[in-house]
Design brief:
This protein is mainly alpha-helical and 432 residues long. The chain is built from 15 helices and 2 strands. The structure holds a DNA duplex (14 and 14 nucleotides). It is found in: Nucleus.
Length: 432
DNA sequence: AGTTATGATTCGCT
DNA sequence: AGCGAATCATAACT
């Protein structure tokens, strides 16, 4: 221990002056068997060190030659490992202490968020994980709203940029790392650089690059957040449907009042007709059902209106059908026969009606076989024949209608609920 | 400005 | 997943 320290201090006293070596040296210089040629050896090492220290003052060719000479020197391996060890045990151990830090929680948050937003991770088509939960929420999987597709397009744009940038960073990182590694390997021939040190340097580079990556992730997250808030804002902006759309929806609703649950196909058709989305149709029916149920009285007028309208339409259709059938085959009677024609909106018009004089007509239903004329509207309203949902309308979907609080109960005339004093007399829905 | 109407969202249930 | 119910947010109305 002491001897070795002494050796290094004696060694020209150049580079290692003042350095003590903690822990002692593991590798004794080769050929140092006894003290017989010790002085010559010291001189030799002193020369080498001197040469190393003055190498930068020399010309390139001269230095190259010296470098080669040094590389081939018999003492080189021993001296190299000694220097490496000294280096290891001094400056580098400080840096080594702060290594292996746990994964940054901030980075983990960002990663999780990007994954959740569908920006990171495997591409799931143009959609994303949260789109279904955040953007469409109760909406159907088949949403085709403009905002939605816009959101998706923008999100995938962000995703693309993110991945391109990430790739660039990774590529740059790899290139730089390889470059530095090569450089260090090259230099390790003349400088005391251990593989461990190279490894450490690589990890430093990686850390630097990952901090850049974090910035990228952060800004991507911000972009997604901004996009999302904008999207949600846009959705919050309520625009009333067109009069025509409301008309179509109401027509369907009141003509299917006994079971206002349009099937998926019906919804699609309505959506198409109204130029709205399927989920909007679902929303509309959801709102309508609940609001109608809550305040039937309030909707009486509207119900009457649409009932009349449907009746008129039906009458027209019947008239047209009758005329047509009479023209085409005068021998075929169809008036009054069940299911002999196909009416667009005659599935099961099942309504509670109250005509202006206060007389209630509950449950007037127009079936597929009513004999209607425009001037017999009143007669239609007075009809009390209940249709059993076999009107043949393809848009119609039968729905669970039980006696315990089912939809039909609420509109069934036999329940003897006065339209004006039914459960709908409360106004809780519009209380806000 | 206050109220009502209405489309959308959220939550819990089945 | 679809529904009812409650609620939110905003358009439309008074």
């Amino acid at each position: 221990m002491d001897e070795q320290a002494r050796i290094f201090q004696t060694l020209g006293g150049v580079a290692l002056a003042g350095h003590t070596v903690p822990g002692g040296m593991a590798i004794p210089p080769p050929g140092l068997h006894d003290g017989s040629d010790g002085d010559a050896m010291k001189q030799d090492i002193g020369d080498i060190l001197h040469q190393i220290m003055t190498i930068t003052d020399q010309s390139l060719d001269e230095a190259q030659a010296k470098k080669h000479g040094l590389n081939c020197h018999r003492m080189k391996p021993a001296l190299f490992s000694v220097l490496c060890e000294i280096k290891e045990k001094t400056g580098l151990c400080i840096r080594g202490a702060q290594e292996e830090d746990p994964p940054d929680p901030q980075l983990m948050r960002l990663d999780n968020m990007l994954l959740a937003e569908g920006v990171a991770g495997p591409d799931k088509g143009s959609g994303s994980a949260t789109l279904t939960t955040a953007a469409t929420a109760s909406a159907s999987h088949n949403d085709n709203s403009i905002e939605h597709s816009d959101y998706r397009a923008k999100l995938s744009q962000i995703r693309q940029i993110y991945h391109t940038e990430l790739e660039k960073y990774e590529q740059a990182c790899n290139e730089f790392t390889t470059h530095v590694m090569n450089l260090l390997r090259e230099q390790s021939r003349t400088r005391p650089i251990s593989p461990k040190e190279i490894e450490r340097m690589v990890s430093i580079i990686h850390r630097k690059f990952s901090s850049i990556q974090m910035q990228l992730k952060q800004s991507t997250c911000e972009a997604v957040m901004i996009l999302r808030s904008r999207f949600l804002d846009a959705r919050r902006k309520r625009r009333n449907f067109s009069k025509q759309a409301t008309e179509i929806l109401n027509e369907y609703f009141y003509s299917h009042l006994s079971n206002p649950y349009p099937s998926e196909e019906a919804k699609e058709e309505l959506a198409k007709k109204c130029s709205i989305t399927v989920s909007q149709v679902s929303n509309w029916f959801g709102n309508k059902r609940i609001r109608y149920k809550k305040n039937i009285g309030k909707f009486q007028e509207e119900a009457n209106l649409y009932a009349a309208k449907t009746a008129v339409n039906a009458a027209h259709a019947v008239a047209a059908a009758v005329q047509k059938s009479q023209t085409n085959s005068p021998t075929t009677p169809n008036s009054g026969s069940s299911g002999s024609f196909n009416l667009q909106n005659s599935g099961d018009m099942f309504i509670n009606m109250q005509i202006p004089n206060g007389k209630s007509y509950q449950g007037a239903e127009v079936g597929a076989n009513v004999q209607l004329q425009v001037d017999t509207l009143h007669h239609v309203i007075n009809q009390t024949r209940y249709n059993d949902d076999v009107g043949g309308n393809t848009m119609y979907r039968s729905h669970g209608l039980d006696a315990n609080g089912g939809w039909k109960d609420l509109v069934t005339p036999s329940s003897a609920i006065s339209p004006t004093e039914g459960p709908g007399s409360e106004h809780s829905d519009t209380s806000n």
